[in-house]
Amino acid sequence: MILADYQKINPNCPDNLLCAEKYGFLVKPEYFDRGYKWALEKVYLKKEALEVLKKAEKLLPDNICFLFWDGFRPLELQKELFDELYQKRKKQFPSLVNDELLEMTNIFVAFPDERALHQHGFTIDLTLFDKEKNVLLEMGTDFDDFSEKAHMDFFQKNPPKTEKDKKAQKNRELLKSVMIKSGFEGIKSEWWHFSLL
Description:
Layout: H1 3-9, E1 17-19, E2 26-27, H2 30-33, E3 44-46, H3 47-57, E4 64-70, H4 75-92, H5 98-106, E5 123-130, E6 135-136, H6 154-157, H7 163-181, E7 184-187, E8 190-196
Parallel strand pairs: 2-4
Antiparallel strand pairs: 1-3, 4-5, 5-6, 5-8, 7-8
């Protein structure tokens, strides 16, 4: 879906959203690529967030850049993602009651209402990309890995034993330090998720 079409059907969509590609960022709109009905074909953020991210990217080594997966997210997409994970958890844990399933789902996908951070254009899901080798840096899990290993502090609590995990720990620390220095805040459950304060 293109942003202009979404704005026509949802008057509550934030205004002044800008395309991250036009700011020179590398993007791969993951949910659009996966075929979600309400996913946008581009990654959009508020101008203020894009400007801070541009400065943050300059703190990375010369051969490394950001790759954006998701920014502003329509509330309808938030509902799609929440419902999908809720149903997976329900099959995994059939003995749990609704409140427990909602709480478990909310750890990784925020409840679909106006409080969900992606609704405002100041939250980004991103990773690091090696421009010379043309590959994503090792981060220990894929995007939207809903396991404990995706937690921001996983490697602090579980010291890496393999070279792959040691690289992932180093790369996560680089991403986190650059984002925090630039005024973003992460969340406990996802190493890739940051919001501008």
